[in-house]
Design brief:
two-stranded antiparallel sheet; 5 helices; 2 strands; mainly alpha; about 170 residues
């Protein structure tokens, strides 16, 4: 899960680099303690304030003639490394439960393990080739639904969906 995390990425306020956390969790006892903390946070429905602390740094984009406008800077948000690790654990657990219980439609590809967006291209090519073999013409309709999402009440929708899918109330 954290193998792909960049060892040299800038840590948050905890000053912990991924390479050190990777070594720590190789110890089974330490890993069990992290799992216990994650389980307790889920069970009591509390996320410690230490994990919510973040730092924002602003980096100027290179090769700009003028730095008079905000859009020539990149704001970078640094979360605590341990907080990121716990969020990854919880995300993996929820994703496993959703896929295991068939809560996710087969056409949902983005942001899921073994369902990368690049798989969409493979599936689309496959469907087109099947139609070509049948001597059919293939049409594709795509549209941008990005502007639809700001209109949703994400918190309520997420809570209702998790409740409908029988997730525990603490999650």
């Amino acid at each position: 899960m954290i193998e792909k995390c960049n060892n040299s990425s800038t840590p948050g306020l905890d000053k912990l680099f991924w390479k050190y956390l990777k070594k720590i969790i190789k110890d089974i006892i330490c890993l069990k303690k992290f799992i216990d903390i994650t389980n307790i946070c889920i069970d009591i429905g509390y996320w410690p304030s230490h994990f919510k602390v973040l730092t924002t740094i602003v980096i100027p984009k290179p090769n700009k003639e003028f730095y008079d406008f905000p859009k020539v800077y990149w704001p970078i948000v640094l979360l605590n490394t341990i907080s990121k690790f716990f969020k990854k654990v919880i995300s993996e657990r929820m994703q496993f439960l959703m896929i295991y219980n068939n809560f996710i439609h087969l056409c949902q590809l983005g942001s899921f393990k073994q369902r990368a967006t690049s798989d969409t291209g493979v599936m689309l090519t496959h469907f087109i080739c099947i139609e070509w073999v049948k001597n059919y013409t293939t049409n594709i309709l795509s549209f941008d639904i990005m502007q639809f999402f700001p209109l949703l009440n994400h918190h309520t929708k997420l809570v209702l969906t998790l409740k409908f899918q029988s997730f525990s109330k603490t999650i």
